[in-house]
Design a protein that fits this description.
Helix content: under 10%
Distance between the termini: 57 Å
Strand content: over 45%
Order of helices and strands: EEEEEEEEE
Largest sheet: 5 strands, mixed
Low-confidence stretches: none
Shape: elongated
Number of strands: 9
Strand order of the largest sheet: 2-9-8-4-6
Mean pLDDT: 94
């Protein structure tokens, strides 16, 4: 199973309760179907579909979403099991920042 563009998924910064999205493609260049199942999804992240099959010479588009509930710099791992085997795990590294907008002007905002 190949992953495009990468297993490192970077979300754009967002604010609390906003949602941002990224997609990856799971590509099966083999001759047999591959079943996938996301077995660990960190809080504040969601994945759709969470499980499915990629047919021989086929692909599947996976949607990752990030909806933070606190101000924090997130560095998490989601795990995907292939063909129901514990030794076939793909790890996706999820990176994002939840921040709030801040603007400080000197001189009471006068130029």
């Amino acid at each position: 199973m190949e992953v495009f563009p990468s297993k490192n998924i970077h979300f754009k910064p967002c604010r609390i309760h906003e949602t941002v999205y990224q997609t990856v493609v799971l590509l099966n260049s083999g001759d047999t179907p591959i079943h996938y199942d996301f077995i660990h999804i960190p809080s504040c992240f969601n994945i759709f579909p969470k499980s499915g099959s990629v047919q021989s010479k086929g692909f599947s588009i996976i949607l990752f979403s990030f909806s933070p509930n606190r101000l924090y710099q997130f560095d998490e791992i989601a795990k995907c099991k292939l063909n129901m085997k514990d030794e076939n795990i793909i790890q996706f590294k999820l990176y994002s920042i939840c921040d709030q907008l801040r603007l400080t002007l000197e001189n009471d905002g006068k130029i």
